[in-house]
């Protein structure tokens, strides 16, 4: 059997399972999923949209999450007690989330708050982090944010404190700080394991935003060199990038935003336009297929291997073992604290 025939057989079986399970099942998928998975999902979104959907759906017994681990974990924290969250592959992690170990984050938090004494620091955690880090933020008056509401989360935090400690994506943190008008010396990188994160007491006192030294290997691959090449070839093109890109890439883009923002940007562009996109390749390819009247190009091919771990075969296996395998469970203690930070995010006005 050809590979395509094989996929078609699997997709048919998945559709049968979906029919059997009816309203008991909801399949959530992130925009970076393969096209076959996206076509099978009940809801497709960015991290913010997916967390909102997980919190809103109170009926489905089973939430099957096609994305990476931190997203499924957040869905489990926001879901109802009777709901079961499953992932087709629990090994689909996130490199960036792995850069912030919760023991090391807790130590850094203790060190910085002890050093700063009466100065109020608000911890802000990007969705792309383990539940334990969200819990640290929740119990210390902090908030979760995603690429679509980081500015609102920073505004919220500066209404409550003088400084922000942002985990784990230094680029989203810096790009948000730049947008808000902070100068480079008001944003310092905290290198885990070094005293005061490798900073001097003076630089920490002066800083308004402390940026954990984490980054996404998929998005930091894009360079200004790629932009120069593409701009030379397509002088009339628009360039849209994700805010996990480096600041020098963001500075040269026409628009910056979450994956849903990028989807809408392409949708709203006039027919015939050329749009160069700096984000994960599966999303760029899908947009190119969906809009044949527009010239959709990748800034540079960059695939997230973790997102790619979710395959139709694994999704079928999960549906055949519904409620039994690859269940995502967060302990009650972590859940309670992490939920505080997630709920604060869901209450933000973007
Ligand atoms: P979005 O919230 O923009 O979908 O981003 C999630 C992500 O992991 C990007 O790398
Ligand atoms: Fe994590 Fe980057 Fe993959 Fe997003 S694209 S899930 S940040 S590794």
Set out the fold topology:
Elements: H1 3-21, E1 25-30, H2 35-40, E2 43-45, H3 47-56, E3 62-66, H4 69-78, E4 84-86, H5 95-98, H6 102-116, E5 121-126, H7 131-139, E6 143-145, H8 150-158, E7 163-167, H9 170-179, E8 187-190, H10 201-206, E9 209-212, H11 224-233, E10 238-241, H12 247-251, E11 255-256, H13 259-268, E12 274-278, H14 281-290, E13 295-298, H15 312-320, H16 332-347
Helix pairs in contact: 1-15, 3-4, 7-16
Bound molecules: 1,3-dihydroxyacetonephosphate and iron/sulfur cluster.
Number of domains: 3
Q: How many alpha or pi helices?
A: 16
Report the major sheet. 5 strands, parallel
List all distinct small molecules, including ions and cofactors, that are bound in this structure.
1,3-dihydroxyacetonephosphate, iron/sulfur cluster
**Structural class assignment:** alpha/beta
- The radius of gyration is 21 Å
CATH topology (fold) name of the largest domain: Rossmann fold
Identify the CATH architecture of the largest domain: 3-Layer(aba) Sandwich
Poorly predicted spans: none
The ordered string of helix (H) and strand (E) elements is HEHEHEHEHHEHEHEHEHEHEHEHEHEHH
């Amino acid at each position: 059997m050809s590979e395509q025939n094989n996929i078609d057989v699997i997709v048919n079986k998945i559709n049968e399972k979906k029919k059997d399970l009816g309203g008991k099942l909801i399949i959530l998928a992130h925009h970076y999923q393969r096209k076959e998975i996206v076509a099978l999902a009940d809801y497709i979104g960015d991290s913010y949209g997916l967390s909102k959907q997980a919190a809103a759906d109170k009926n489905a017994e089973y939430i099957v999450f096609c994305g990476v681990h931190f997203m499924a974990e957040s869905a489990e924290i926001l879901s109802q007690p009777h709901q079961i969250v499953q992932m087709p592959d629990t090994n689909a992690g996130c490199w960036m989330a792995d850069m912030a170990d919760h023991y090391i984050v807790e130590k850094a938090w203790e060190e910085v708050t002890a050093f700063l004494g009466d100065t109020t620091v608000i911890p802000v955690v990007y969705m792309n982090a383990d539940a334990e880090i969200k819990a640290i933020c929740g119990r210390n008056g902090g908030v979760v944010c995603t690429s679509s509401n980081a500015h609102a989360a920073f505004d919220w935090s500066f209404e409550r404190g003088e400084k922000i400690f942002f985990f784990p994506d230094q680029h989203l943190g810096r790009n948000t700080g730049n947008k808000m008008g902070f100068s480079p010396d008001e944003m310092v990188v905290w290198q885990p394991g070094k005293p005061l994160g490798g900073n001097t007491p003076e630089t920490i006192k002066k800083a308004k935003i402390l940026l954990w030294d984490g980054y996404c290997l998929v998005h930091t691959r894009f360079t200004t060199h790629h932009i120069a090449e593409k701009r030379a070839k397509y002088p009339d093109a628009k360039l849209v990038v994700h805010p996990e890109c480096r600041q020098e890439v963001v500075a040269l883009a026409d628009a910056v935003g979450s994956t849903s923002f990028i989807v809408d940007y392409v949708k709203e562009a006039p027919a015939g336009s050329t749009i160069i996109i700096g984000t994960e390749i599966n999303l760029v390819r899908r947009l190119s297929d969906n809009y044949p009247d527009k010239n959709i190009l990748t800034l540079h091919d960059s695939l997230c291997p973790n997102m790619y771990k979710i395959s139709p075969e694994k999704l079928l296996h999960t549906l055949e073992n519904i409620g039994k395998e690859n269940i995502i469970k967060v302990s009650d203690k972590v859940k309670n604290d992490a939920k505080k930070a997630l709920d604060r995010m869901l209450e933000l006005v973007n």
